Amino acid sequence: MDIKSFLELEAASSSEDSLDLRSLDLVSSYDSHLMCPICHCPFVQPVRLDCDHVFCQQCLGSAIITFRSADANEFPCPSCRTPTTRISMSVPRLLVNMCDEIQVRCPSAEAGCEEVLPRGHVQSHVQKYCGFRLVPCPDESCGKMLRQKDLQTDGRCLHGYCRCERCSEDVMERDFEDHDKVLCPSLEATCNDCGSTMRRQELTKHAETCSEVSIPCAASQYGCKSKVRRVDIGTHEAQCPLISIGPYLEAQNTRLKQLELTTRHLQQRNEIFEDGMASIRASLAESARAGNGARSTQGGDRDRARTEVDESTEMANAFSSHTTQYLLSLHESLREEVNQMSHALTDLDTRASMTIMNECLRIKEDMAHTNAALNSVRMQVQWLMNPRLHNGNRANVMRANSTSNDSSRTSLTSTSVPGPSSNGASSILGSLRPRRPSDSGREGTKL
Amino acid sequence: MASQKRIGKELSELTASPPEGISVELADEADLFKWKVFMNGPEGSPYEGGKFLVNLTLPNEYPFKPPTVSFGTKIYHPNVTNDEKGSMCLGMLRADEWKPSSKIAAVLEFARQLLLEPMPDDAVEGRIAEQYKSDRKRYDEIAREWTRKWAMSGQ
């Protein structure tokens, strides 16, 4: 079913004259799942949406009227806000049965009907069976309403008046029974305190004067708890200490009230001042923030702060100068800190360069030492090499001399020994020998 | 009529079994649409120990229109306006967010939750929200001071 036909149906059904099931007095508790989330009552004529949420037909109708935007074809579900276009009128029979089974009291319970019955039966009970429902008077000319149970079998109108014989008052026939037994003022009643009997209508007047009635002490508002019979009240009041300080207490009371009033007034004023302070503080904080943003134009900031302050009250003036001073001092301290930092930096710099210099010097010295050592080693090597070179030369010369001696000696002895072979050998030796010194010399240079 | 029935029901439920730290009464016995709610500052928040008066006003169209919530006690909070009205900004109370199935108990519990965890991104007091985000310590301090000043004197 779409929205339009649903609303039409809803309008039609609500015009019917039926019992309001929501106003019934529930006797038993019921499952919370049976409660309509809109009216918080057990479902009445439940309907279902596509998102499976269930509402009373009437509640959903009001929800659609409220939430649908200008004749749109859809509305949000009142539980989950899913856009919905269709409404299903059929809900599980189980749900309807459970709702109908909830025990309720008859709506005429106040009139005296003691019936407790399932909610599903209430409608028919009220319309057909309840003795306390109102029905039109059988006398059509009367036009008044009458309770079903009072309806006489002969169809007589009970709205006529008849006179009570004792109090000479006109009473409607319908109410005569009640009047006769309970309400008639001429009935006799007994005073509970003094035991005397009198007419009911005089009883209240009697209670004001009855000497046996206990009445509270006049100082009861100040804490005297005693209740005394009216005869004895005079003697009690003469003795009661609270009576004598009564006037004083009263004066105190009024004073307290006045003071309270003044305090409240002052509190209000104080609140106003507090608010003012807070707003001033806020504006100052803002201006301070702006000042930090552009520190270079501090003078300008001060001017700005001052103009702002001029707009506000005198109190703010004192406040702002205080804050400007604070800002200035803050600035000073920051500058000092920066100075200290730069000092420390230069200090560090010089120290670092000093250490570098020292290290350099040491290394240079070391290098000089190493150089010297190297030189001395070279010198020693040269010194060591030199004699060997000399020796090599000398040996060469000496060896050359000796071979010439040998050959002369062999030429001398060649006559005795067949010598061409030995002569040849010595010549070979002589040609090989001279190379050696050059070899040793080469070795020397290698060293 | 239907709304009165529902309001009466919710009121009796709330008075019979109130949520933690919340008590409810009618501002005027004859008017079902104006409630006085007393909310204790939740533990662990700077509002702890304070007792805040919250005025809850229900529209005639309730539950189809949302109730309005305002603080009768001054409170330092990003989501509560800092004026006499003390209006509270609750997402679920906006007309387009409200659902008829929401209950007043849920609204009150949500408001109390907001005391515990303010939502600075959804604030009505930008200054307090800024402070809440940037200088949480100072915010706690001021909120505690305000609580001491306004919410503890038993007014």
TrEMBL record, chain A:
One MF annotation (Gene Ontology) recorded for this entry: zinc ion binding
Residue span(s) of domain RING-type: 36-81
PROSITE patterns: ZF_RING_1, ZF_RING_2, ZF_TRAF
Region annotated Disordered, chain positions: 285-308, 392-447
Domain TRAF-type: 97-152, 179-233
Bias-annotated ranges (Basic and acidic residues): 436-447
Compositional bias ranges of the Polar residues kind: 399-429
Entry keywords, A to Z: Metal-binding, Zinc, Zinc-finger
ZnF segments: TRAF-type: 97-152, 179-233
Pfam family membership, one: zf-TRAF
Name this polypeptide is given: TRAF-like signal transducer
UniProtKB/TrEMBL annotation, chain B:
Domain UBC core stretches: 2-152
Transmembrane regions listed in the UniProt entry: none
Domain of life where this protein originates: Eukaryota
Pfam families referenced in this protein's UniProt entry, alphabetically: UQ_con
Single annotated GO MF: ATP binding
Alphabetically ordered keywords of this record: ATP-binding, Nucleotide-binding, Transferase, Ubl conjugation pathway
InterPro entries associated with the record: UBC (IPR000608), UBQ-conjugating_enzyme/RWD (IPR016135)
Known EC number: 2.3.2.23
Identification of the protein by name: E2 ubiquitin-conjugating enzyme
Species for this entry: Penicillium diatomitis
